[in-house]
Amino acid sequence: MNMKKMGFADRAIFILGLTLAGVITFVLVAGVIVAVLKFFMDSKQRPVQIHSGPMPDDEPKAEFF
After folding, report:
1. Which pTM does this prediction carry?
2. Contact (CB, 8 A) for 6 and 14
């Protein structure tokens, strides 16, 4: 691409397009890196097992005679 024959507006749009492409690429690559790191860090942690007991009754049932 010959930059000498381009006008000022064309150069500005070209530079803005390259900048936008760079930002989008950076966001995608950073997102993939964060997702992979989070996956490996979550897989190293052991799952916690919770053993729950029965819930106590707040309101005892009325007995009918």
Report:
1. 0.56
2. yes
Question: 11 Cβ partners below 8 Å, 6+ apart?
Answer: 3
Q: What pLDDT digit, counting tens, does each position of 7-62 carry?
A: 989 999 999 999 999 999 999 999 999 999 999 888 777 666 777 777 766 776 76
Give the span between the Cα atoms of 56 and 10, in whole angstroms: 74
Q: How many CB atoms lie within 10 A of CB 6?
A: 13
Q: Name the E strands within 1-65.
A: none
> What is the 8-class DSSP label of residue 3?
S
